[in-house]
C-alpha cells in the first residue's frame, strides 16, 4: 500500500491555519482506491467486511437491517439490505465511508455518486490471501495496525494447529445441504479453502468449481464413502424453515457410510462460513471446529 499525505491550507478570516487530511491507497476487489484514514462513520453492506471490522474493534459502524449473524446483530440499522443499499439514507446520513461487497457489489458506482465507497468483495480462489489483504487494508484505514497484526498471528497459529490436527486422519468431502438438496465443494471452490489451507486430502478430485457447488445424490455420498464428511447447512445459515442438514443426512444410505458410523461427520457453524466467508472471525471459527473434531480422532490406517 502506498500512503500519501495531502496538506491543505485553509485561509480563515483570522489568518491562515493548516489542516491535515490523510489518505491511503488500498487494493479493493475493483482495483486500487484512495480512502481517507480514520473515517468517523462507516456503513457496511458486506458481512465478511463487518466480521473483520468487528474483530479489529472499529467503532461507529452501521450495517444492514438483518446481518443473519448473532455476533454481528449489534450493528444492525435501517440502511438497506444485504443485496441493496438504501440510497436515500446514505445521502441523508453522509457517512465518511461505505463498504460494499459480494451481494451488494453491483451498486458501487451508484453509491459513489453520493458517498465515498469501496468494494471489498472476497471471492474465488485464494480466500485466505484475500482475507489477510482485507485485514491489512482495514488496519491501515482505521489506524489499527497492531490489532491487524495480532489477528494475522492468531490466524497463522490456527492454521498450523489445524494442519497438525488433520495430518494422517484421512480424506474429507465438504457438502452443503439446502433442505433436501446436496452439493459438494472441492479444493479451489467456495468452501474448498479448508482443503487447501490445512492440507486436508479431498475424497474426490476434479470436482466442478462452481459458485453453488456440484449437485450430488445420496448414492454418490455412499459410493464415495469419505473418511470425513464436513457439512454446511444453508437453511441454518439464513435462518430458514426448511429441512436441517442433520435431518437431510439421516437416511439409510448416509447411515451406511463409515463417516456416519464412526462419528466423523462435522457440522460447521453455517452462518459465518456462508454469510461472512472470508471474514477473519468466520475463518478462525471454522478452523477451530475442524481442529477440535480431527484432534479428538485417532490416526487412520489403511
From TrEMBL:
Domain of life of the organism encoding this protein: Bacteria
InterPro entries: ABC_transptr_periplasmic_BD, Bact_iron-sidero_bind, FatB
The protein's name: Iron complex transport system substrate-binding protein
GO CC annotation terms, alphabetical: outer membrane-bounded periplasmic space
KW Nuclease (keyword) present: no
Biological process (GO), any one: iron coordination entity transport
Residue ranges constituting the Fe/B12 periplasmic-binding domain according to the UniProt record: 41-298
Similarity section: Belongs to the bacterial solute-binding protein 8 family.
Pfam families from the UniProt entry: Peripla_BP_2
Keyword annotations: Ion transport, Iron, Iron transport, Signal, Transport
Localization, UniProt: Cell envelope
N-terminal signal peptide: 1-21
PANTHER family recorded: IRON III DICITRATE-BINDING PERIPLASMIC PROTEIN (PTHR30532), PETROBACTIN-BINDING PROTEIN YCLQ (PTHR30532:SF28)
Gene3D superfamilies hit by this protein: Nitrogenase molybdenum iron protein domain
Amino acid at each position: 500500500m502506498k500512503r500519501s499525505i495531502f496538506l491543505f491550507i485553509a485561509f480563515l478570516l483570522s489568518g491562515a491555519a493548516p489542516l491535515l487530511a490523510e489518505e491511503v491507497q488500498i487494493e479493493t476487489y475493483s482495483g486500487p482506491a484512495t480512502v481517507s484514514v480514520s473515517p468517523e462513520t462507516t456503513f457496511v453492506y458486506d458481512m465478511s467486511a463487518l466480521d473483520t471490522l468487528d474483530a479489529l474493534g472499529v467503532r461507529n459502524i452501521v450495517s444492514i437491517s438483518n446481518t443473519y449473524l448473532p455476533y454481528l446483530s449489534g450493528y444492525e440499522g435501517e440502511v438497506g439490505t444485504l443485496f441493496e443499499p438504501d440510497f436515500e439514507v446514505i445521502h441523508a446520513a453522509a457517512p465518511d465511508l461505505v463498504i460494499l461487497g459480494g451481494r451488494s457489489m453491483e451498486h458501487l458506482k451508484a453509491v459513489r455518486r453520493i458517498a465515498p465507497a469501496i468494494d471489498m468483495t472476497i471471492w474465488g480462489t485464494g480466500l485466505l490471501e484475500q482475507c489477510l489483504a482485507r485485514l491489512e487494508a482495514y488496519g491501515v484505514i482505521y489506524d489499527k495496525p497492531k490489532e491487524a497484526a495480532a489477528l494475522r498471528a492468531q490466524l497463522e497459529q490456527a492454521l498450523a494447529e489445524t494442519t497438525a490436527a488433520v495430518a494422517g486422519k484421512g480424506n474429507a468431502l465438504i457438502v452443503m445441504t439446502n433442505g433436501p438438496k446436496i452439493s459438494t465443494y472441492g479444493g479451489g471452490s467456495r468452501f474448498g479453502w479448508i482443503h487447501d489451507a490445512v492440507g486436508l486430502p479431498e475424497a474426490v478430485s476434479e470436482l466442478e468449481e462452481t459458485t453453488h457447488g456440484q449437485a450430488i445424490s445420496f448414492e454418490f455420498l455412499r459410493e464415495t464413502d469419505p473418511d470425513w464428511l464436513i457439512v454446511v447447512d444453508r437453511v441454518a445459515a439464513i435462518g430458514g424453515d426448511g429441512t436441517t442438514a442433520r435431518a437431510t443426512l439421516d437416511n439409510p444410505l448416509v447411515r451406511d457410510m463409515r463417516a456416519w458410523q464412526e462419528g466423523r461427520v462435522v457440522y460447521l457453524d453455517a452462518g459465518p462460513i456462508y454469510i461472512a466467508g472470508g471474514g477473519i472471525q468466520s475463518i478462525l471459527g471454522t478452523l477451530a471446529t475442524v481442529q477440535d473434531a480431527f484432534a479428538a480422532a485417532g490416526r487412520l490406517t489403511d
